[in-house]
Amino acid sequence: MHSLQAPPAVVMIRPHAFASNPETRDDNAFQTLANRSAAATSTQARVEHDQAVALLRDAGVKVHVFDDHGDLNTPDSVFPNNWFSTHPGGHVAIYPMFVPSRRRERRADVIEMLKQEYRVQDVIDYSGLEQDKLALEGTGAMVLDHVGRVAYTVKSNRADPVLLERFCTHFNYEPIVFEAHDAEGRDVYHTNVLMGIGGEYALICLDMITDPERRATVKARLEESGRTVIDLTHEQIAEFAGNAIELSGRDGLVLALSSRALAALTADQIAIIEASATPLPLSVPTIETAGGSVRCMIAGIHLSRR
User: Fold this and answer.
1) Which of 3, 133, 246, 271 has its CA 20 to 30 A from that of 101?
2) InterPro entries under this entry (predicted)?
């Protein structure tokens, strides 16, 4: 039995032309440049991806892997959680992306696989709104509480407020929107770098939420849903400790996060997680140079199998 919050199956994209994307560098403060050649960086990213897939499968998570053939100039394709999401009841959303290279990541074969192997009632495609310069980058821009039906969203150019309202109306979520800054005062580009929601706990850096009232609201809503709030520090966020996703494995729940993220957590924080889920560290240091970590690599499938 899997929890509503923790999908038993995921989609991952195997990178063949991975790079730190110059188009997204302006507003993604997590990006760094890898200190090796482009070819070596891409090869190493593929190795890390394949090892992560193997560990997830070992834990009993169903992983659907698609190869990115590298000919479309999609340096961020390893992060598919931004261009589509799936929802209980058979609903799929396809999203408009902020920069042109990320728009090329969308692919019909992934959606076709979902339709063939899972019960899909409808696909709502918002991607045409890119013509109007609107973006809503999936479960990067929104961290979804599937149980409490809340879409936690940081204000950014990757999360248009009108589009967010439209998504929430279609998919029956309540938007909770807030401004968030990192320790240097820069805007946070994606909500999923500062928070992740499990079934019994939520990882979040409350200190990044700039407005004290909103901060209190977010904390209260997470606690009302019965979750223990694990309040992360700015330093832990910089190690990608918020970029984690709970999944349903063979022997119960696992929390997929990077090895670096797990190393940044305290013993007390890990104990709260371990009360309901087993941490599953994945080593992805090269992929993290692109400004995303394990959560970004995983698109959860919240659909019933056919």
Assistant:
1) 246
2) Amdntrnsf_FN0238
